[in-house]
Amino acid sequence: MSKNLKLEHPRDQITRIISRIYKRGMTTTSGGNISIIDDNGDIWVTPSAIDKGSLRASDIICVKKDGSIVGKHKPSSEFPFHKAIYEARPDIKSVIHAHPPALVSFSIVRNIPNTNIISQAKHICGPIGYAKYELPGSDKLGEVIADEFKKGYKAVIMENHGTVLGGSDLTDAFERFEMLEFCARTILYGSQIGTPNYLTDEDINSFEKQAAHMLPEMETTEHFPDEVEKRLQICNIVKRSCEQGLMISSYGTVSMRYKDNDFLITPTDVSRWDMSLEDIVQIKGGKREKAKIPSRATWIHEEIYKNNPNVNSIIMTQSPYLMAFGITKSYLNVRTIPESWIFLQDIPSVKYGTHFKFNNNSEIVENCTTALIIENDSVIITGDKLLQTFDYLEVAEFSAKSIVMGASLGEMVPINDEQVEELRKKFLT
């Protein structure tokens, strides 16, 4: 959410996020609830039995600290466990409960997603709790959930029910929610085509250590009209990526070259859903725009631009179907349909750690392909115009999705060599 989130009324925060969750297919018309506890101890919560696809700020209920209710509806039937969480954990200021399909899949087989599937997830989600089944809306359900939060968890799988997550504010809770569902989806999709591989804690710690490098600051920054226009393009593509499920609020980097080897890039620690022009960071002459922190992957983008003059835009993200191949070390054969092969030709993968700054990264930088998968980390897409690069990302994700979905039907039959040669002659020469 925006940097001025705390200046936004709890009603507006809640309606914005519940709409986002609903449109992304992570809850139903009747399911899910969100709350925020304010500095007065009053709890703002979604109403009971009101369409989650069309909630307005005026629909949000306030349950005052003294128990009185302000609003035109009844508070969510699950309000008791929201209240129990706040009483158990004063550091929790917002709670999200929903029934996203992948996490429900884990809840009905009595399992917890292993967030070591990618490098950032463990840090964002933390350890995951597990609450035994109790009657929805009951005080007993509130007790078992609160007991899990008392153990220090901020994310809990609810047996045969869904998930509940807390955060220091609604942004924090939503990032945790999105990331946990992403992990669950990636594990499920990966299991359709192979066996998911998980990172060790040592792998994750190595990532955190190598990512600490920071470029020096430039003294002044100039913003010419074409540079501002590119900032707008980046913001639009980032938001579109989030809406399409190709990026989540806590991960995804987009950059554009704007002059020689200077470029613009998205920042770190800013929600991708509501990124603004002011958030974008200019990188010029190896220095960063003053008082801004660019993506931790900035050095990769910098090296790609230096070594590949035809590349003018880069998207680095974690989309669930592409990452299904990244976590299983499965080869993604893009000879699915003509468009996929014409655009991508091949999607190689590199081992986890290849993207660490201190390692030999020639596979990523010098042999720069249109799309490349870094195992258990991300996918890198490069191109000329940013919209073209985004199109490549969509095509790659669709190709991966088709293969994952087709796995239950039988073995993939790719376009053959003769057909590929025909495509090459017509479209690439």
From TrEMBL:
Pfam families reported in the protein's UniProt record: Aldolase_II
UniProt organism field: Tamlana crocina
InterPro entries, A to Z: Aldolase_class_II_sugar_metab, Aldolase_II/adducin_N, Aldolase_II/adducin_N_sf
Stretches assigned to the Class II aldolase/adducin N-terminal domain: 12-188, 232-404
Keyword Metal-binding: yes
Name of the protein in question: Class II aldolase/adducin family protein
Keyword terms: Lyase, Metal-binding
Domain of life: Bacteria
Coiled-coil ranges from the UniProt annotation: none
Keyword Metal-binding carried by entry: yes
